[in-house]
Amino acid sequence: MNFICSHCLQHCTSKKVDIGIGPYEFWGQRCIDSHIKILSSCCEADCLDELGCLITIAEYNNYEEDQKTERLIDIHNYEKGG
Ligand SMILES: [Zn+2]
Questions:
Q1: Percent of the chain, pLDDT > 70?
Q2: Which residues, chain by chain, have CB under 5 Å from ion ligand 1?
Q3: Ligand 1: centre distance to CA 53 (Å)
Q4: What are phi and psi of 40, to 5 degrees?
Q5: Quick one: pLDDT band at residue 80, thresholds 50, 70, 90?
Q6: For residue 33, which of 18, 16, 45, 12 has the smallest C-alpha distance?
Q7: Where are the domains of the chain?
């Protein structure tokens, strides 16, 4: 999966950022505000996919899972002596 920065329109790496306000209190009740966004590491702007669509959290999580799986396959191949 390729990520494109919506600001400079270059290929970029992405990072998961929590832009929520964190812990807060509302009428005596403690809450934590969490708002995860996928941002480009170059401009900290929204990340797009190759088609120019915003990367959703679900898509990013899938991508992360894929990366893990690929790494496992690499290690497996290495151990076989390939
Ligand atoms: Zn950028």
A1: 99
A2: 5, 7-8, 40, 42-43
A3: 15
A4: -75, 145
A5: confident
A6: 18
A7: 3-79
